[in-house]
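Lecture 7 notes: from sequence to structure.
We start with the chain below.
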Amino acid sequence: MLLDRYGLALSTSAQAARDAYVEGADCVLSAVAGPEAHFRRALEVDANFALAHAGLARALFLAAQSREARAAAATARELAARASPRERSHVNAIALSIEGKPPQALTATLDHIALFPRDAMVLAPATGVFGLIGFSGRQQREPELLEWLRGLAPHYGNDWWFLCVYAFAACECGLLDQALDLIEQSLAGNPRNAHGAHIRVHVLYEKGEGRRAADYLDTWMPGFAREGLLHCHLSWHAALLALELGDVDKAFELYRAAVHPGGSWGPPINVATDATAFLWRSELAGQPRSPALWREVQAFAVKSFPKARIAFADVHRAVACAACGDTAALEQWVSEIRACVAAGQQPAGPVVATLAEAFAAYAGGDWAGAISRFEQALPETVRIGGSRAQRDLVEHTLVAAYLKAGRVQAARERMAQRVERRPAVTVAGFSMP
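Predicted structure tokens for the same chain:
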């Protein structure tokens, strides 16, 4: 009987298929380029290997090749009928998310992990800020994820992948010293784990150590293939850190080379949201608006997310419309978001539309309207998904609105709360009178 890296039995008798599957799984878990090739190699050896089809489906799904991913998931379902109960459950949990059924996928994942806690390929889609829990729309999603992973920790020991996602969950709950210790252990086990590098940057950002984070990325990024799942997003982090440290030329060089539509490869949700967030934050930091760059971002967001449904993407599409001054498109988009909420298709609830309106008010110079809406939305912003670092876009804009409205004391109080969270925090472009 052949086993995967986590000691779970596999329904293939071919050692070469098993080895290729494990390599593909590790590529997925570390967000490096090439998982599809490994899974296809496994299938060349054993075409009936259900988990290799499921792994290929997951890899294709992460690469935004939705149609191919659904086809691979369907094949995995068909073949899993002849596999072990564990593998049938494994395939079902992964396939449900690919089939566009995230609530059912999360339920299936929770049930599966209760029985097979070391099934990392099933656990992985539920972790992270874009995972099944991260995009669940629940107010308490961050502590829920941390508590779940804390209970699973004894099953994984010093496994580099688990320590990585556990570190991110701790970081998002403000346990920064614990998070830093966990991520250093993870990277000691696999220094080229892109998720690990990403999470280390998040922890350093939250600790207010921007220079340290920037230096780390400068040494880690060379050699990381542009085809890697996180190349765009890590480049976004590097660009924002450069902006925060006052190196505007470097920030825009990174943006143009590896973040903006046409200059990057990445899942559409990363390109659309990261490009939007960078341009907006650059303006908050005092840089002039580039209508041409904004038009590229808006066009990409509209093409990639034509229907309101994914809260994090929906808010960023609204920001792009607002920055372009496209009032008609923005009003239509907010109406679609509200219709989505009314139809029970938006688990994050009304906060999505409130944020869209807040950014629109800010772009239109309505400081009082922006402040009112941002203050209303801020306690529930966690529901849209994304990391604390990504959601800083909201708080940064609120501080800027306070300053533009002449409410200096309110800005000071808000910044004081941020300093409490990030002891060495600096916010580029904000001059506090």
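Points to note: Residues 424-433 have pLDDT under 50 and may be disordered. The beta strands are 2-3, 9-10.
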